[in-house]
Amino acid sequence: MSDDLEIEYKASPVRKGIWAILFAGVLGVAGYSLWKAYRLEKASHLDKIVTRSQAPEIPAGKAKPRSKPVPETQPSKPTEKNVEQPVESQALVPPESLADSDQWLREQLPAVNPHPEFVHWINTESDLIRKTVLLVNEVAHGKVPRKQFMFWAPKTPFPVKEKAKGQYVMDPAGYHRYDRLAEAVNAIDEEGLVKLYRLIKPLVDEAFAEFTKPGQAFETTLIQGIEHLLKTPHIQGKVILLKPSVMYKFADPSLENLSRAQKQLLRMGPVNSAMIKHKLGLIRGLLLGQPEAGA
């Protein structure tokens, strides 16, 4: 008797295909499961190796030491040694007497007026305070002390141009004879000059008292002299002159009646005279607005 199964198996090729597919599926699932388990085991093994290489083993019963906190660095406080102390400026000590004043002035005045003509003058003259006081007193009285200040006098004669018979005009070229004097006056540091004057004022008053009447104050005379020159009229254009004798005179009576000091300022020309008057005005303002030391 034949086997019924064998007969059925042979008789059904469709079933053979189904069983083949199922068998292949079982093999595939089993193979995938084995491959996945292998990968997981390998990954776990690698993790252990990495962990061991990164963290050293700590013996049982010993706690992992805690890291100490790093204290914040505070900026170092300055000490007396490394703090730079301000340097106290030494007060300028005035000369003790008129006899000691020339050298002292030669050292201090160039900072007040660095003009080379002025510096040359203070280095070649003596009795600087006495001569300056004399100049101020003479100008305040409308005079010109030529003999005491020949250094500033022009080396060339006073130039004129003849306009008509008996009439002349001042030659503008002659104004330049006073350029160096005007430039030297304009170079004065008026604030520094007044401060220096305040410092040596006792010696200035001493020199002033040598040839003036008792009770006269030098500073009052100084301001009078400045204001006297500031009243000199400002003239532009041609200035008519007459020559009735050896000396020239201004044809305009209002100009001729000016003091010798004011007429001398006119002969310097409009530019130089304006420059000098401007500087004198600044000095006057400081003298009137700055109280004396100890007042």
Primary descriptors:
mainly alpha, 295 residues, 4 strands, disordered N terminus, four-stranded antiparallel beta sheet, elongated, 2 domains, 12 helices
Distance between the amino and carboxyl termini: 157 Å
Q: What is the approximate shape?
A: elongated
User: Based on helices, strands and strand pairing, what is the structural class?
Assistant: mainly alpha
Major beta sheet, specifics? 4 strands, antiparallel
Order of strands across the biggest sheet?
A: 1-2-3-4
Q: How many structural domains?
A: 2
Total number of helical segments? 12
Helix share, percent: 40-55%
- Tell how many strands the DSSP assignment holds: 4
| Subunit arrangement of the protein | single chain
The whole-number mean of residue pLDDT values reads: 78
How much of the sequence lies in strands comes to under 5%
Give helix and strand order, one letter per element, not per position.
Answer: HHHHHEEHHHHEEHHH
Cα-based radius of gyration, to the nearest Å: 55 Å
> Residue ranges: pLDDT <50 for 5 or more in a row?
1-35, 45-63, 83-89, 291-295
